[in-house]
Amino acid sequence: MRIGILTGGGDAPGLNIAVYTLTKLVEKRHEVYAILHGWRGILNREIRRVSSRDLLDFAFTGGTYIKTSRTNPFKDEARAEQFAKAIKELGLDVIVAIGGDDTLSVAAEAQTRGLVNTVGIPKTIDNDVYGTDYTIGFDTAVNEAIRVTESFKTTLISHERVGVVEVMGREAGWIALFTGLATMADFVLIPEKSVSWDAVVKRIKETYDNKRWALIVVSEGIKEYEGPKDEFGHSRLGGVGNELANYIEKTTGFEARAVIPGHIIRGSAPTAFDRILAVRFATEAYGAIEEGDYGKMVAYKGGDITRIPITEVLGRNRLVSGYWLRLYETFWGI
Ligand code: F6P
Q1: Distance, CA 157 to ligand 1 centroid (Å)?
Q2: How far is CA 92 from CA 32, 47, 48, 326, 332, in A?
């Protein structure tokens, strides 16, 4: 068979390992094609025959060697027609789509419309793909966010300042929550829990009076600013950390600073957890191909790797809830 592999959406540490491992398994019996630039690569017919040897030297770095895009081939019906025609011409039997909810939703739609067989692998540093406890990239992003936050903390202590760390997380506050727990931040703001900034200020004043510095971790997704939207309807986020630091400085008189590690936490080399997760997901995706079990996304559930219909993931996100929200409330409930 002719098997295509693509990565879509924001890059994430561990993507190269997933692509490499899948190629290494698939090439034993089939032809492997890298689809460059995510779904855009289908529209532009950018596919290249690859071997695991081609990918090996980049397998353990961050980023995605086969490139990515946020192209939505179902943006409108004219585009969808072009997409269907391109898929037919390329003659791929299966496409393995490695991505977040947007990329996976395209895989689900392509399968439902009968355009091509698909298998999904969830990745995003945000960890917000429905149906899986972990996505490729999240663990690395959290470890990097912790590293940055700990460095920041030392200078907050020296200067007796309030510090705000803004981390990525569009729909879900997983990165902020895990970073906040791991560094025992004085406050954490996540999209799932709306709190008034005055209540945050009150808490920070108490903390500051006690230890003469304070640390807040905030998820970029708590506030959306006006701006251009991508093809899946998302606006660009970022900036709330500075706004919050200014607000705290103005209302308390404490000196405040914000840092936005942004893409830095997305670009590092994958941790052991993300490496093994990528290998396990790729192996399961290969199993799905060999069994002809299409329209499935591989998932991590309670330590096991399983498969769920990709359609289940559509239009949903895995948000901070249940046990994790209670843990949040234990430390930062107001
Ligand atoms: O990968 C998901 C994500 O990290 C979001 O949290 C963030 O808003 C977005 O990507 C930013 O991506 P970019 O600036 O690369 O488009």
Answers
A1: 30
A2: 10, 10, 12, 46, 50
Cα dihedral 301→296→15→260 (10° resolution): -70
Residue 123: phi and psi, rounded to 5, are -140, 145
Amino acid at 304: D
Active site residue 11: no
Report which of 262, 270, 211, 227 is spatially closest to residue 241, judged by C-alpha positions.
262
pLDDT in tens, 87-105: 999 999 999 999 999 999 9
Tell me the C-alpha distance between 95 and 292, whole Å: 12
What pLDDT is attached to residue 235? Answer: 86
Question: Distance, CA 275 to ligand 1 centroid (Å)?
Answer: 21
Model's pTM, two decimal places? 0.97
Residues of the chain with pLDDT under 70: none
pLDDT of the residue at 150: 98
Quick one: DSSP state of residue 124? -
Residue nearest to atom 1 of ligand 1 (CA): 10
Q: Is 173 in the pocket of ligand 1 (CB under 6 A)?
A: no
Neighbours of 53 (CB within 10 A): 11
SS3 label, residue 167: strand
pLDDT at 25: 98
